[in-house]
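Sequence in, structure out.
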Amino acid sequence: MAVILDTDVTSYILKKDSRAELYQPHLLGLPKIISFMTLAELRRWELQNNWGARRIKQVRDFLDDFSVVYADEEFCEIWAQVKRDAHKYGNPIGTVDAWVESAALLFDIPLVTHNRRHFENVKNLKIISES
């Protein structure tokens, strides 16, 4: 089995935030996957915060431990269904969150997030959260 990490948990691990410790037992020995949207958010942080070459290299080295899932036809179809269902049932979800959760649905593996409430209303989504 593997897990999809939401951007928040990925950032906790990257920053060595104390909340990362809550998730270590859920990650030990498992392949870790992030959505391309989490990767994009991390790249945006590099630019937004004007990180230097050393910090950028540190982040990129950190990401070597993760697989990244990129959008293809099936992934896009799942994302479209997630967005449609969220709207249809009055539980709107942000675009970034929809891509992250769609990655978990694509592989039928748990999503590890500290933002449980963003994802609770999604049918068939397995959530691991310590929040």
